[in-house]
Structure formats: structure tokens, C-alpha cells
Design brief:
Elements: E1 33-38, H1 51-54, E2 61-71, E3 77-81, H2 85-94, E4 98-104, H3 112-124, E5 134-136, H4 145-163, E6 168-171, H5 173-179, E7 191-194, E8 219-228, E9 231-240, H6 243-249, H7 267-275, H8 295-305, H9 331-339, H10 359-374, H11 434-445, H12 465-479
Parallel strand pairs: 1-2, 2-4, 4-5, 5-6, 6-7, 7-8
Antiparallel strand pairs: 1-9, 2-3, 8-9
Amino acid sequence: SPDALTADGTRRANAACSTLTTRLSPAVSTANVPGIDVSNWQYKDKPAVDWSDVGTTSNKFVISKATEIFANSDGSIGYYLDPTLQTTVAGARANGMYAGAYAFVNPGVLTPQAQADYFANAYNSLGGPLLPPVLDLENSGGLTPTELVAWAHAFLDELQTKTGRTPMIYSGPCFWAQSMDNDTSFTSYPLWVAHYDSAPPAAPLTQPLAFGGWEHWTLWQYTSKGTTTGITGNVDQDRAVDTTTLQSLVRSFADVPATGPNANPFSASIDRLSQAGVIEGYPDGTFRPGLDVSRQAFAAFLARILDLTGDTSCAPGQSTFPDVPDDSPFCAAIGALVTSGVIEGYDDGGFHPGAPISRQAIAAFLQRTDVLLAAGDAAGAGAGTGAGGESTGGGAGGTGTATGTVTGSVVGDSGTGDIEPTCPTPRPFNDITEQFCGAIAFLADNGITEGYPDGGFHPTAPTTRQATAAFLDRFTTLEGLEL
């Protein structure tokens, strides 16, 4: 931990035990991704951390201390929530770095469930995307190895239940060998190993010592005496195995599990779009995948993908529709997409911004966007991003099933240029009308949708947040768009 409350502000380096002789894979390589971990220690009595400067370095991830529960000298219990947690996570995200959080634990103080719950509340408040929650285990609390093993399992079980994430374990070879009796029952959790070179950081180790049955490290903290632009004084420095490993660790929402019996088949799409800032979650750290998406929220998502930059609201009197107020955070995004020929209103002259967007309307909007991209007109098509607010504009009470899993191959930019494509024979689905048939066929032909097992597309059904994420993820892949 960068600073247990009783420590001097440096991590208690876990020196290698002489009984450990093998090494964890892989060896240091140019594929490794640099990162740092921090706490209030990096802010205390120092100039403010400049996260924009940190973002200019090679560091790609930042993990912050979140919580610690400890016993005071008078026997009372202290609850510590790092006051810089939110600032660190927001600063990392705003400057292109992945963020995470850890709990420094003191076994023997309260129950493992109580410590896990306190950490889970702090972790969930951060929302996604996040690296896994980390158990920082480097203090036995006076427990025997058998007791500590049971304590750690109870903590991890509770943390996984409360966050919906598989936690990561931070520890070092000597501590694990001595205090955990080198127990090998934790290898299902990714390992963040703490193992320092004898003279860091001039000659870092090529591989940390193996322990606890792990064969591979996921993250490796190799010094507490590093430096980086934007932070005054020493900082812990880490490396991830490679970019793919780092990205695979980043998950976004507690209610979108990627594995297990309740795994969401759209979790990868949801993660990709949330990490790119296209679609957001709720303040409680959830995504609420079954809620319906409103027409105005979909306009915001699409405007972000097309990088239509500018103000979120409209200048007075500039709204495209009478039912979209000038000061609506969606006004400029809707206007930009109307100008681009991507979206249309209703015969009554309105846009119906808060109404759930139907699956056939999404098909039409995406097919017209394909035409726009094929013509090379996306850049400068209009002002406005529609940023913010889609969480509250997502509609209420939606529980509809998302689009079926796609098994067809995804091809390159279709670029048909056909603004109103004709309806093929036979039609791809048995329940679609002539008006939207061509657009829906465009989705089906390009692997963006398969429809439902009953052979239908359910064109007028509202589109859920998870289905919207799947449609947009597959569409951006088809078009080769970088998010």
C-alpha cells in the first residue's frame, strides 16, 4: 500500500524469501504497459497533482487507494476513505488513462465482510470503466496462516458479490510465503505482484519471484521510488503485461457481468462504448441494460461517434423541433444529425425526444449514417455533441430483450450510397414493413443484427440500452470508426 495510516508513506516492499526460487512469467519486455499507483500521500503537503501532465507520459493506468479500516489505540474503529480517490480517478480518465482502486486491509479488525463492504461502496461510487477492485494484502493482523487464508477468501467472496467483479490481489512473495504459508488456493484471481529490485529503479528485475501457485503476473509493482511528470516526489511504478491484458481487465458496470451464470452477452460492446465515452452509466455504478433508450439519447450517442463537436445546447431560437427546447443538452446533437440527413422528425413537426427509440428507427438512422460516411461528409456536418444527460433520458421501465447474438461475419465499409435502399426479396424478417425494410436489411446483411428466434425483427419494439450498445458497437466496427 502506498500509505497505510501507520506507515511513513512508502510501500512496505516485500523482499524475496530465500525459499522461493522460480520466477513468474513473462519476463520484462517492450510490450509491458507502464502505470502508477497513488494515494493521498502524493497530494499531502505537496503541489497539486497535475493529471494533464501525467497524461503526457507513457503511463496508461492509475490505481488509487480507496479505503482502510483500522483499530485506534483506544480500541475504537477508524474508517478511512482516501480524500483524493475521486480526484485521481477523474483526472486519470480525463487524460486517457485507465483507473482503478484498492483497499488496504487490516485483518482482525471487524469482519472481512465489513471491510469488503466499505471498500465496495467506495469502488461502486466511481462508476465505470474501472480496473478490478484490488485487495491489498500485506498485513497479517496477527492471524495465523490458516486464519488469514480464510479471512482473505471471505473478503474476496464478499467483494465480488458486492461489485460484480472478479477482484485482483496485490501482495508480494515474502509476505505470501511467510504469512499465507504459500497457499495456492487464490490463483483464480489476477495477481498484482509487489517485488522490488535491490536498487530500484536503475536495474529492475526481469521477472518477479513466483509464489502462491501463480505462474503469471498481471500487474507488477517494481519500485516505490519512481518519478513521473505531474507528481512531486516519489511514486510507485507498475507495469501491465501488455495492452491486451490491461484492456481485458477494464470493466465498466456492476450489473453487466462478463462471466458466470448471469453473464451479459453484450458486455464487451457495453464496455467498449463506455470506455470511449459514447454511452454512460448511472451515478450508482450501474448501467441498467434493460432500460429503454430515448430518441434524444440515441442522437447523443450517434453524435459522439461522429465526433460532432460543439455546444450541447442550442442558441436561442435555433432548435430544429418545437418539442426540443433550446437549452436541452440534446438540442445541438439532434440539430447536427438532422442537418446531416441522418434523423427525421414526425409528421406533427415534432421529434418526440423522450419517446423510446424503436428498433426500426435505429436501423434507419444507422443506414443513413452509412450513406453519410460513404460520401465523406461526417466531418463538419454540424455542430453539437449532445454530451451528457443520456442516463436520465434513457426511458423508464424498459425490460425488452436485446437483439440476438450475431454470428455472421463483419465486413468492411459498405458505403452503399443508397439513401433509401430497396427491400430485398425475400425479406430478411417476417414482420417488417416496406418503409423500413431496406434499412433493416442493411443491418442484417452486414452482421449488425440477427433478429429474434421467432424469425422477426420486432421493428416497433423499444430498444434497450444493451441492444443499442450492441448495434452501435457492430456498426462502428463495420465502418472502421475509431472511438
